[in-house]
Amino acid sequence: MLGLNKTDSKFLLIVILLTIFTPILMQPFAANSGLDQFNGGYPDLMQKVAIFGIFAVGFNILFGLTGYLSFGHAAFLGIGSYAAVWMFKLLTMNVIPAILLAMIVSGLLAVVIGYISLRRSGIYFSILTLAFAQMCYKMAYSVLTPITNGETGLQLSLSDPRVLDGATTSTSLPVTNIFGLAMNSSYKVEALNRVFTFNVGFYFCAIIAIIAFYVAIRLFRSPFGMMLRAVKSNQQRMNYMGLNTKPYTLAAFVISGMYAGLAGGLLAAMDPLAGADRMLWTASGEVVIMTILGGAGTLMGPVLGAGVIKYLENIFSKINETVLHSWFHWLPDGIEEVVVWIFARFTGEGWHLTLGITFMLVVTFLPGGLVEGLKRLARLARKGRKKTDKFDESDPDHTPPPSKHVV
Amino acid sequence: MDAILLQVLNGLDKGSAYALIALGLTLIFGTLGVVNFAHGAIFMIGAFCAVTLSRILSLSFETIDPTKVDFLGNPATIKTPYVEAWFGPEFGGALIDWAVPLAILFSIPIMIAVGFIMERGLIKHFYKRPHADQILVTFGLAIVLQEVIKYFYGANPISTPAPEVFKGSFDFGAMFGFDPNVIIYPYWRMVYFLFAAVVIGAVFSFLRFTTFGMVVRAGMADRETVGLLGIDIDRRFTIMFGLAAAVAGMAGVMYAPILSPNYHMGMDFLVLSFVVVVVGGMGSLPGAVAAGFLLGVLESFASMNEIKSIIPGIDQIIIYVVAIIILLTRPRGLLGKRGVMEE
Amino acid sequence: MSNSLLTRRGLLKTSAVAGAGLALPTIFTSGASAFTNDPTGSTVTLGFNVPQSGAYADEGADELRAYELAVEHLNGGGDGGMLNTFSSKALEGNGILGKKVEFVTGDTQTKSDAARASAKSMIEKDGAVMITGGSSSGVAIAVQGLCQEAGVIFMAGLTHSNDTTGKDKKANGFRHFFNAYMSAAALAPVLKNLYGSDRKAYHLTADYSWGWTQEESIAAATEAMGWQTVEKVRTPLGAGDFSSYIAPVLNSGADVLVLNHYGGDMVNSLTNAVQFGLRDKQVNGKNFEIVVPLYSRLMARGAGKNVAGIHGSTNWHWSLQDDASKAFVKSFGTKYGFPPSQAAHTVYCQTLLYADAVARGGSFNPCAVGEALEGFEFDGLGNGPTLYRADDHQCFKDVLVVRGKENPTSEFDLLEIVEVTPAAQVTYPADHPMFAGGALGACNPGA
User: Fold this and answer.
1) pTM of the entire structure?
2) Transmembrane region positions (chain B) (predicted)?
């Protein structure tokens, strides 16, 4: 199907099905069941998972294939957002031109940064990309305020020209749309004591995410992808063979920068605001961590990682002590206090602790990331088969090659 | 001229902070081959050693003073520190006043222990893992350490003053014939600079002139061969990790009066210290120190009004601009070694 | 790329089961209610969106305490706090319009993105009908914009920038806290009395929008009374060590240093300035002085003894002796064991003001609430007689000028009130140039 082999087609099909049913899958707990706090099936979170999924898949094209660890990808995310919001302000609220411009602008920036940074490798490359991204962040926050609106972030205003949309006399801000269909409109279905929200914005992100995912599969399987993997395993040998690897790595860098710009544009399309915080080094670090957490070099891993981190951030940070008390009110008083105290360290204001511990546990016990965890679970479940060792199946995509000790 | 001298002084001071952090980081990063994102957190823990000691010294018992009332209108409780009750208000007060310098002694064993536990408990399992995994696990550790500190000390900065003796500043200008008040420099910053020089000198001579240092340097150059010679290089690397933690921790203790400690100060320094280490060149201790001072001085120059009026906002990005220029002109930073962390 | 067969099947099965549920949908028509998240049950949900991580986490924690206290009082619990002193008596301690008040909390992380994500989840998932909170202007403005689009009311927490009710004002957003212009207008006369009208000021300003509005306001106010501005220097946010900005101050001929910094920057720049011995120096034959236009008691603790004798302004302080402040300090102090901060006070007031507006307007509809708040005059919330101006949704009330105490008697007793500047003196016309460039627009009930 579509130039994919059988396994990949099946895989893509599953991804498509999973995406279509996300609003249902992420709403597993009935309302008032006490666990509905854990439901993630509301538009904002679903959109974020899809968008950061795109971001991480794009990052993985560079990192997973070539091994170049960029610590400045947030710059592309940020500039994509700014480009998109400017498009909403000047041209039209239709998201298509905004997203296209976001990809173009971030692609151009990626050419410049990539061309310079790729002159170095290893940690030197990482620090160069980090330096560029931090420069973008610092300037967007201060001296570039006329373009970026600094701390507050670039927002729409009533007085924007929006030349294609024509003059309106409305006193409220227009909403982003695709040919008239508003991104924030939702269709709600109540069934099985749950409310399922089918949101236009989410499905728009989901379709783009699937396309982005498909492109990534094709890239991974193409001769180009093979070339990039060769760069990862031994760049020197490639150079000795008379191959100039730079165009390949630069192409990978630009493609992954455009993925990031696309993600930034989509963020703005879902919520027309672009803030400098999106370019901070922690945002660059976040995508690195999503990728590694899920499983670097795998196709599904980055998406999984993005989902887990966004879920923790949005769901765990909202479980406050009042919620905990309502969960454990059936316990005797003294014990309830103790249990609530313990849980409160990991939820609400303590959600960062959960995040940190998750990172440590996953990377210590699942060297291949969450994808590796899923594989192990599957292996456990497959009882009838012979006992297997984790080293038995060698899939180059799932197990990053052990790097040489640098000393 | 006077303005330039003034900024050189400021830069040296900033530079000594960068150099100290980068020195510890490069001991781990450039020699053990571990990308340690928790290094900023170690610096932060050092600063909180100072806070903790000053809290311990100020531990108080409460007596009720019926003549005064607290904010709710109840009789106020007066706190008297135990040390003042035991040693008399004069000596006790001096002890509390000198909490930060005393915290150096207090912090060394703690920081070495922290280093040992980190290395033995976690890092040693990651020597042979990809750098990306090291980043993730140490970043997770940094978050956990931060959250623990936040739980005990809150999120706001905590005032940790230097001893009264070091209050105020020294007028260098008057000494060299400039107008008074032109080149002033706080006493505590002079102490910090001297302290940094001593620590840097001590670390270098330790590695240069002791047998232990020689073995470690050999291990840095070729770990396997040293291992084949029957030397337990792992144990020495553990000690190195403890040493690096102690250096970062002491830097944190002494920095507390300059920058009131808060739980996320480590993250603020993390990016900067990585830039310093890489600009200095991977695996090079002198490089890290040189880069620290260079970036400190340049950053101070960039914050001069004369320069800011030519290029607005240059002080925000100078460090990154310099880093890019240096890495493009010198492929391995100032003094980096070939082949370290390049793949 | 292969995933395991079993996982796939498992997931497919789950999807199939969930899909079966779709067979009997009951469709919610979103047009059924007149506004977003109309509370139809016996409860109403408010969203408290405060920083729980990052530099302002302690202020966020104090805000949350005040919110919980306000909810307790609204639902008839506790001693009623400022409900007893509030001039409007529409609230009866039975929730809001008879609906029990419930709340959800979220973490803004002091980042616009995270704050909006958190506010969105409150609106989309938890059905919050009002969002409140925030501890920085960037976040407040970002969330205010979101609430305008979503059709819920936003009651701003700690936000001091002129822009919140200036060029970024929104019909659905309301601010009780004071702003940079008011700080400057209140401080300037006090400074003139203390330091004379012949002074040269050197400004260090945090290089972002709040810093700029603060610098613009205080420079204009001090220049109006005869001071000269020698230099305005922008410092990077979170610079940490401010030595290279402070060292040239003495040589510039200035005799007053104005620190337009807040939070961690304020603590560090003030600590550095005192460390450099600026306050022991004489310039132009006068004692060198430092001014911090916006004080926060929580943050002032970080600067320790360095705040002694330094003047600034604040929205409210627990040592105020009017009945309302005393009632609030008593109920907060009894519950938590320490006095409330100005952040806690302003968010407590905002919650009460919202609830009262709903009760008076008889509806949770944002437009009805907005109408009830616009032009509302009240008293008994600790700041004296106050007006919620209709033109820009800003509260006009007395501003406190405070000074760092020389000999604090406890860890909370850091500031003393120097003067209570009456509201009339800090009031400005709605079309003042510092607040120009925005429009409220029309209220948006959403849905």
Assistant:
1) 0.88
2) 15-35, 42-61, 98-123, 190-216, 237-258, 270-298, 310-328
Whole-angstrom Cα distance, residue C313 to residue C161?
Answer: 14
The Cα–Cα gap between C118 and C115 comes to 5
Question: How many residues are present in chain A?
Answer: 407
Of C234, C251, C330, the CB nearest to B181: C251
Q: Determine the Cα–Cα distance for residues B16 and A80; give it in Å rounded to an integer.
A: 39
CB-CB neighbours of A179 under 10 Å: 7
The 10 Å Cβ neighbour count of residue A113 is 24
| Neighbour count for residue A60 (Cβ, 10 Å) | 28
Structural domain containing residue C136: 43-178+318-397
Q: C203 with C107, same domain?
A: no
DSSP state of C394: B
Q: Domains of chain A: which residue ranges?
A: 6-21+39-281
**Is C212 within a domain?**
yes
Question: What is the number of structural domains in chain C?
Answer: 2
C332 and C253 in one domain? no
Look at the alpha carbons of C17, C23, C26, C29 in this order and tell me if their dihedral is positive or negative. positive
Backbone angles phi, psi at C196, to 5 degrees: 85, 175
Both C47 and C173 in one domain: the answer is yes
Query: Per residue in C239-280, pLDDT tens?
Result: 778 888 988 888 888 999 999 998 888 888 998 898 888 888
All residues of chain C having their beta carbon less than 8 Å from the beta carbon of residue A277 are 111-114
Residue with the two structure tokens 């009456």: C422
Closest residue of chain B to C330, computed from CA coordinates: B72
User: Mind listing the pLDDT tens digit for each residue in C359-410?
Assistant: 999 999 999 999 999 999 999 999 999 999 999 999 999 999 999 988 887 8
Question: What distance separates the 2 farthest-apart alpha carbons in chain B?
Answer: 76
Kindly state whether residues C95 and C161 are assigned to the same domain: yes
Q: How many CB atoms lie within 10 A of CB A381?
A: 12
Amino acid type, C412: F
| Chain C (200-219) residues lying within 8 Å, Cβ to Cβ, of chain A | 207-210
Do C155 and C190 reside in the same domain of the chain? no
